[in-house]
Amino acid sequence: MKLDYNLVAVCVGALIKLMPDVVAKEVEKQIKVGPRGLQGLRGLTGDQGNIGPQGIKGDTGPHGKQGAQGVQGLTGKNGKDGKQGLTGVPGVTGLRGRAGFDGKPGPQGEKGIIGNVGPQGDRGPQGETGPAPKHEWLGFKLRFENPDGSWGKYTDLKGPKGDRGDGTGALFDGFNHGDLYIVSNNYTTSGNERIICSAPLTVFMNPQPFNDETVFIKRMNGEVTIDGNGHDIDDDTTAIMTVEYTTLRLTYAGELQQWVIT
Question: 237 and 245 in contact (C-beta within 8 Å)?
Fold first, then answer.
């Protein structure tokens, strides 16, 4: 067998490199190494050696440069709603905004429950005296025209003859005294008067009557209410004439400070 000195030199050189520096230098002194020969041919690749043990983890290297923007990923599914957060502190009240435009009228609401009757209102001012209705006289009889144009019945206004007086009675005793008024609207008296009411209305007595002031009121068609206008009428505030063609005589009694039906 022929010894390949080149191969031996290579093996010795490799062993020296694997030795520690001190040992390598000592070996080089003992072995006379000749000049380095030519580079030999590359040998065959040997078998894969076993994996060595895990080395110690090195220090973290510096951060690299920012990489290029990646492609937009697909949109993920919506996550579940989170729990309700705590109520925040109320903010400062904002400035008052401008008034908005009026909206369209809403639908008609249901009819509400009828409320209680309110208190009696103040008496309104006295209206103007209306024109007298058409009427006709036949002696002492009087009749009025109805709203439909027909004529009502005659009413005899002449009363029975009274007893002869002795001169001590009231100055205007009897029906035929004072001015005569035929009225069809609300009316206020102002002294000794004779009033014929041709329609439903209210007669307001003189608010400042004098003692023994006397007023005759005759009802024709429609209910007539007599209002004391601040003074009672027989201890009541009003008197109502419900029967047609009847006459009431009212006299103011100064001592009683009220009107008396006589």
Answer: no
